[in-house]
Amino acid sequence: MTALLEIRNLRAEIGGREILDGLDLTVAAGEVHAIMGPNGAGKSTLSYVLAGKPGYTITGGEIWFKGEDLTAMAADERAAKGLFLAFQYPLEIPGVATLTFLRAALNAQRRQRGEPELSSPDLLKRVREIAKTLNIDAEMLRRPLNVGFSGGEKKRNETLQMALLEPALCVLDETDSGLDIDALKVVANGVNQLRAPDRGMIVITHYQRLLDHIVPDVVHVLASGRIVETGGKDLALQLEARGYAQYQSEAA
Amino acid sequence: MAAVQETVDQVRRIESDQYKYGFVTDIESEKAPKGLSEEIVRFISAKKDEPDWMLNWRLEAYKRWLTMTPPGWARVAHPEIDFQDLHYYAAPKKKPALASLDEVDPEILKTYEKLGIPLREQEILAGVARPEGERRIAVDAVFDSVSVATTFRKELEAAGVIFMPISEAIRAYPDLIRAYLGSVVPISDNYYATLNSAVFSDGSFVFVPEGVRCPMELSTYFRINERNTGQFERTLIIAEKGAYVSYLEGCTAPQRDENQLHAAVVELVALDDAEIKYSTVQNWYPGNADGVGGIYNFVTKRGDCRGRNAKISWTQVETGSAITWKYPSCILRGENSSGEFYSIAISNGHQQVDSGTKMIHLGKNTSSRIISKGIAAGVSQNTYRGLVSAHRKAVGARNFTACDSLLIGDRCGAHTVPYIEAKTPSAVFEHEATTSKISEDVLFYCVQRGLSQEEAVGLVVNGFVKEVLQHLPMEFAVEAQKLISISLEGSVG
Fold first, then answer.
1. Integer distance in angstroms from the first to the last C-alpha of chain A?
2. Do A76 and B2 touch (CB under 8 A)?
3. Cα A79 to chain centroid, rounded
4. Total domain count for chain B?
5. Which of A211, B10, B82, B194 is surrounded by the fewest CB atoms within 10 Å?
6. What is the Cα–Cα distance from B473 to B277, expressed in whole angstroms?
7. Does B336 reside within a domain?
8. How close A84 comes to chain B (CA, Å)?
9. Residue of B nearest to A56 (CA)
10. Do residue A54 and residue B3 have CB atoms under 8 angstroms apart?
11. Where is the ABC transporter domain (chain A) (predicted)?
């Protein structure tokens, strides 16, 4: 049984600056892993490297996703294979209705996988079902994607996309940023409903508070481009109490 | 950087192979000898069997043209055009006057079929491959210098609408033509309009009488086929009191190495309470990847809101031509009249676009609205040039202008040149302009959701132009959306 995601000794840089420096991480299907760490540790870089963002160069190591070499796949191929990144700052696309975007994304993935496109009525039905659980109304689906959305609306929209696309691996980058506690609960609830035996999650966050709502199976500390400590959910609480200072001095 | 780079490379590869209308129809044609002279003007007039007054009108234009020089103010560069190296008349052999579609050369019918333009009324009437509820469209097809077929004429006649080639209208309705031809774009207007006045060969004539709402969309399809041939069509649309008409033109040309000249004149006249909606989907051959060939599109389009509450609306989707020089304008003469200009201008490869509008407010409480969306890719240059002016009597004139430009890659240019003149203190003119680069992060966001790079660009661009697309007749909005994607993507539709 191969792991859903296996990262070995990963090194990556952007603009000639090395950010990831020998990172190891294994995520099995059904598990939720939290990655915590100080600013500049490489948390967002990890998510971008996994998703295949242009500009990031892998200089060493391996990434295996569902038993295949992830680094050999184009970014859209990774998405179609089931890798989803919930953005810390979701992008706005003026003039493109949210529903139009959802249809374009889902059908692009289905085409890549050789599956038939979903008909508009079927899609609408599916979207409405999910939207209901996230307090997303029909009006929001008609609005241009993320344009003028509040922080909470943007994150709920990310969760909606995640639920619709049914990825095998969800990477949530600082999903709690910009959310008040009520919005956080709605989003966390949406994420929790997606926990499944055949799905893995990586939850990247600064703060413990998100992990009160999305309870992880494993917690990692990422500092200076590598995982420096791994533990159970209690580790997050300890980190909250003592901060990241020890890892930063260690690395330096 | 990388994703945009990919798009740029993509865009660079596609220019020549993506133009799917580049074929040539093999048909015998009758051409005037190359060059322009009084003799040629007389030849064209004689070919059309024109009355003397028409010939004299042409000759006056020709004499004036000889004294003029081409305008140099547009932001376009091209070698000097040798006006003696062109044919000013080309027509498919056989007769120009056709009694029915069965007499149209089957080769020409095939050409239009290939272009997706239905000319056979029976098929249209039978609703072949047309979704339910879709409106029918009457088509006038202009092949090189002559109109080869006009559909639905009988039905339109019953409604009192005249829709026919202008060459026929000159003979059939001389009073209307004499009253209106040149009344919006005078023969002395500008170099290319004057040239057109001397040598125009065909085009469409539309007359919608008082109180009539034209029962269907009217459409003209222009096709340049012959080598070294200029196309100089002339369109005249008159909407009498309370009349309404929606008109669409489409254009394509074969892929050729030399540049071809297209210098059209379009005149619109709207009387009291009349409305004219004029839409263009322009897809002339843009030239190849190295900028060789392509159409020089030097066009004068102007509408005159001559009556109270008259309304003229221009919508254009410009994707083709090596050079576009075009400013569909409105003269807002009647009190309360209004003008609109909605434009999408896409330039790719080596294309040069200098396009925009003129809103000339003369009457009281006139209003105008300009929404322009320019998209530049490749090494193209895309300029919006617009004039909004208010005469001192244009009390209460209002204008709103929004010009947005989107750049794809870092070798193209977008420019906005607005001229605003108000001679009455009561005029309220608003102008907004933005220029942005297609965002790398937005593209990555789309790609992370599974869209290919091309699909992502298509989605973002279609979002960018949506406001304008909405103003096209529904049937053409879908077509235009596809055309936009094709112009910017590698995927050949």
1. 38
2. no
3. 12
4. 1
5. B82
6. 9
7. yes
8. 7
9. B2
10. yes
11. 5-249
- Residues of chain B with Cβ-Cβ distance to A86 below 8 Å are none
Which whole-number Å values give the CA distances from B475 to A34, B134, B279, B450, in the listed order?
51, 8, 12, 29
Q: Which residues does A contribute to its contact with B (CB < 8 Å)?
A: 51-55, 75-76, 78-80, 84-85, 87, 90-96, 100-101, 104-106, 108-109, 112, 144, 161, 165
β-partners of residue B375 are B346, B406
Alpha-carbon gap, residue B271 to B240, rounded angstroms: 5
Taking alpha carbons only, the member of A51, A62, A19 closest to residue A37 is A19
Other C-beta atoms lying within 10 Å of the C-beta of residue A252 = 7
User: Which of chain B's residues have a Cβ under 8 Å away from the Cβ of A93?
Assistant: 442, 445-446, 459-460, 463
In the predicted model, is pLDDT for residue B100 greater than 90?
Answer: no
Q: Which of B490, B472, B111 has the alpha carbon at shortest distance from B281?
A: B472
Nearest-Cα distance to chain A for B443, in Å, is 9
Instruction: Dig out the tokens for B224 from the structure.
Output: 């340049």
Q: Which of A157-161, B110-114, B201-205, B266-270 has the lowest mean pLDDT?
A: B110-114
Nearest to B81 by CA among B296, B377, B372: B296
Residue of A nearest to B440 (CA): A54
User: B197-251, pLDDT tens digit by residue?
Assistant: 999 988 889 999 999 999 888 888 766 666 556 678 899 999 999 999 999 887 6
pLDDT at residue B13, as a whole number: 45
Nearest-neighbour CA in chain B from A229: distance (Å): 29
Q: Do A108 and B439 touch (CB under 8 A)?
A: no
pLDDT at B472: 81
Q: Is the pLDDT of residue B257 over 80?
A: no
Identity (one letter) of the amino acid at B138? A
> What's the ipTM?
0.96
Whole domain around residue B46: which residue ranges?
Answer: 2-370+385-399+421-427+439-488
CB contact under 8 A, B447 and A79: yes
Question: Cβ contact (<8 Å) for A94 and B463?
Answer: yes
Domain presence at residue B377: no
Q: How far apart are CA A220 and CA A213, in angstroms?
A: 17
- As a whole number of angstroms, the distance between CA B489 and CA B443 comes to 14
pLDDT 10s digits, A175-185:
988 888 989 99
The residues on B that touch A, with CB distances below 8 Å, are 1-3, 439-442, 444-453, 455, 459-460, 462-467
Closest chain B C-alpha to A217 CA, distance in angstroms: 26
Q: What angle do CA B450, B451, B456 make, to 5 degrees?
A: 145
CA B279 to chain centre: 8
Q: What confidence category does residue B95 fall into, taking pLDDT thresholds of 50, 70 and 90?
A: very low
Across the interface, whether the CB atoms of B463 and A93 are under 8 A apart is answered yes
Q: Domain residue spans in chain A?
A: 5-251
Residue B137 to chain A, least CA–CA distance (Å): 28
B272 HSE (CA, 13 A, CB side):
3
Q: What is the pLDDT of residues A9-63, one digit of tens each?
A: 999 999 999 999 999 999 999 999 999 998 889 999 999 999 999 999 999 999 9
- Give the per-residue pLDDT at B17: 45
Spatial distance between the Cα atoms of A188 and A40, rounded to a whole number of angstroms = 25
CA atoms within 13 A on the CB side of B492: 9
Q: Which residues of B touch A91 (CB under 8 A)?
A: 439, 441-442, 445
Interface with chain A: mutation pick from B448, B465, B466, highest number of A CBs within 10 Å:
B448
Asked if A108 and B463 come within 8 Å (Cβ–Cβ), the reply is no
Please, which contacts does A233-236 make with residues 24 or more away whose CB atoms are closer than 8 Å? Answer: A233/A34, A236/A34, A236/A36, A236/A208, A236/A211
Q: Answer whether A169's CB lies under 8 Å from A28's CB.
A: no
